[in-house]
């Protein structure tokens, strides 16, 4: 039976909230670097291709493990090849612009990707916060890559950008898990019980805020940088005291996307204002 190669669920990831874990670090690095070049464009191409490559390859593994029918194999192979070629084109562009060394940053993603595909083959990839947090750390490497291109040198500040982007993503993932855990609640528990359930999410966001504030006070990070982390910490407190009982997952995801987008904008503005002031 003939089938179109364009299958949206194969060509494009269906985890809509995952886009922010790529674009937030990438945009932060691009704007913090303050200078966009042709290499910046090639980095965007390569990063986007690698990000999209996961979905069709995941489908291939699902076909192999009998989780999907054989009719999905041809489209999955096509889009895997397409994104693989696009990633190679992006890497070739970086090499042409003298930034081939940035390909090293992709290496940590290989074992994480293999780990994820192993879980897919065993039908155990859902609600794996550990994998998601580690994977968000790999995606956060887009921040130093973009920053170094803009700066024209591997400035150590790029590693701080990576850590900040990763810690924010990790806190966001844990918080999303909390909101989904609250959904089945039929009655609202006591405030004490809500705080107990939210302890991990609160620990992540408030640790980030306190750590960034301390680094600002010691002169390591720009002055205004605690502001975006304060937003995320305040959102976690709100989500703790106002549980998402009975709220649809789509609504939770949209709110998460809005908060993450505001975080990214605030981060960029805070960084640029601090840089201009200095």
How does this model look, in words?
- The chain has about 280 residues and is an all-alpha fold.
- The chain has twelve helices and no strands.
- It has helices spanning about 10, 20-35, 40-65, 75-95, 110-120, 130-140, 140-150, 155-180, 190-195, 200-215, 225-240, 250-275.
- The longest helix has 29 residues, at about 250-275.
- The protein starts with 7 loop residues before the first helix and ends with a helix.
Task: Produce the secondary structure layout.
Elements: H1 8-11, H2 19-33, H3 38-64, H4 73-96, H5 109-121, H6 129-139, H7 142-151, H8 157-182, H9 191-197, H10 199-217, H11 226-241, H12 249-277
Helix pairs in contact: 2-7, 2-8, 2-12, 3-4, 3-5, 3-7, 5-6, 6-8, 7-8, 8-10, 8-11, 8-12, 10-11, 11-12
Features of this protein?
single chain, mainly alpha, 12 helices, 278 residues
Can you tell me the overall shape? flat
Please tell me the overall pLDDT: 92
CA distance, first residue to last residue: 65 Å
Q: What's the number of extended β-strand segments?
A: 0
Q: What percentage of amino acids are in beta strands?
A: under 5%
Task: Look at the helices and sheets and give the structural class.
Answer: mainly alpha
Task: Flag low-confidence runs.
Answer: none
Helical percentage: over 70%
Quick structural overview:
The protein is an all-alpha fold. The chain has helices at about 10, 20-35, 40-65, 75-95, 110-120, 130-140, 140-150, 155-180, 190-195, 200-215, 225-240, 250-275.
């Amino acid at each position: 039976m003939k089938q179109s190669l364009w299958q949206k669920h194969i060509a494009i990831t269906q985890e809509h909230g995952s886009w922010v874990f790529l674009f937030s670090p990438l945009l932060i690095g691009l704007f913090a670097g303050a200078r966009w070049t042709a290499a910046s464009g090639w980095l965007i191409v390569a990063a986007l291709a690698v990000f999209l490559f996961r979905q069709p390859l995941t489908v291939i593994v699902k076909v192999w493990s009998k989780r999907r029918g054989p009719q999905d194999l041809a489209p999955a192979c096509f889009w895997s090849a397409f994104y693989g070629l696009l990633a190679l084109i992006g890497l070739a562009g970086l090499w042409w612009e003298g930034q081939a060394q940035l390909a090293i940053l992709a290496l940590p993603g290989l074992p994480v990707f293999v780990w994820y595909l192993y879980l897919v083959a065993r039908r155990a990839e859902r609600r794996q916060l550990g994998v998601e947090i580690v994977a968000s750390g790999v995606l956060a490497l887009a921040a130093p890559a973009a920053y170094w291109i803009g700066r024209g040198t591997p400035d150590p500040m790029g590693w701080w950008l990576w850590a900040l982007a990763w810690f924010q993503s990790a806190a966001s993932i844990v918080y999303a898990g909390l909101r989904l855990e609250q959904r089945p609640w039929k009655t609202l528990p006591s405030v004490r019980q809500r705080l107990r359930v939210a302890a991990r999410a609160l620990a992540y966001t408030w640790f980030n805020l306190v750590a960034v504030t301390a680094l600002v006070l010691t002169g390591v990070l720009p002055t205004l940088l605690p502001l975006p982390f304060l937003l995320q910490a305040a959102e976690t407190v709100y989500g703790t005291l106002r549980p998402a009982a009975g709220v649809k997952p789509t609504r939770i995801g949209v709110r998460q996307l809005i908060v993450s987008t505001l975080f990214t904008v605030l981060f960029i503005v805070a960084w640029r204002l601090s840089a201009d002031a200095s």
